[in-house]
Write a structure and sequence with these properties.
The chain has 204 residues and is of the alpha+beta class. Helices cover 55% and strands 10% of the residues.
Amino acid sequence: MDTLWAYRDRGVLDEPHADLVDRHRELAKDQTGVVFYLRLLNRLSSGEFDVDSALFTRIDRTVDQLEEAADARDVAARKVLAALEPIEAAAAASASGAQQLSTDDQAALLAIAGGARLYEHLLTGRMSVTAASGTRIPHAKLQRLEDAGLVVRDTGHPLHAGQPVALTDAGRAALFAARRTPTARTPKVPARPGASPSTPAQRR
């Protein structure tokens, strides 16, 4: 999920995967609420406060808030699973025909995903791609990626000014498939330092 979150922020993911990440972020947010009220309940029952009617009222209110937070967390978890199912089905259906990317190709696609332009040197006539990160990609590699249908150039711009280069949908899918890890298990909220263990999300 850390990889998916990073890809989402860089605009690498297609719509189904982007939706999955958005749903998982909601799940992480709701889990934070569960942890907050659980810690508050632990504090109220720690003996720090006088045992009186005011304490009982605060405990009752906190228990209700914890229950609401847990319900919201469970709803968010079900949305994550719903977003994950079509992705798993599509991955299983296309696994046999997925393009195999070399490490160099993966690095090039990742660089292009962050923004890149193809330039022609005015004096030498040599062409190369410069990514927003500063990475330079040889023109020959760009041509191979274009021929494979993984990237596309905006030829409406002159080469001396830089032609924008972007990933195609096939490029995004191939890049993600190359970095993909098994997703058959129920997604978990990223652990946070000091967080108390929570009830596992419903398994399919």
